[in-house]
Amino acid sequence: MTAVARRLTIALVLAALAAAILPLPAAAQNPPATPKAQPAKPKPPAAAPSTPAPAPAPAANGREPDLAFGAFQRGYYITAFALATKNVDDKSDPKAMTLLGELYANGLGVPQNDQKAADWYKLAADRGDREAMFALAMFRLAGRAGPRDRDASAKWLAAAAKLGQPLAAYDLALLYIEGQLFPQDFNRAAELLRVAAEAGNPEAQYALGTLYKGGRGVAKDMHQAVYLFGLAALADYTDAEVEYAIALYNGDGVTRNQEVAAALFHKAALKNNPIAQNRLAHILATGIGAPADPVAATKWHLISKARGETDLSLDDFVAKLDPDKRAAGEAEAKKWIDALKKGRPS
Question: DSSP state, 254?
Answer without folding.
Answer: S
